[in-house]
Amino acid sequence: MQDKESIAGMSWLVLLIIACWGGLVRYLIDVKQSKATWSLINALAQMVVSGFTGVIAGLVSIESGLSIYMILATSGISGAMGSVALTYFWERITGVKAP
Questions:
Q1: Which of 11, 33, 72, 80 has CA atoms 20 to 30 A from the CA of 58?
Q2: Which sequence spans correspond to the domains of the chain?
Q3: Which residue spans traverse the membrane (predicted)?
């Protein structure tokens, strides 16, 4: 039983890493396109938002019955989308338009 629990824990860790990586990629793209200036604090803040958004995307993907590869892809894409994906999930799940 311990092996299944450790595999599940590692899966969530991988999902979180991919989501945060997506956030870092988004931030680097914004810096390259001169939409943002480089700041370690801002990069970390983007990664925190992206990590949260990626976990939400992972939960929605699991509930939808997607394969592990699609779950990870969705998590990474949502991580790169950051707050845009979070707004989408908010409106989709609650039915309330985000402010």
A1: 33
A2: 2-94
A3: 6-29, 41-62, 68-90
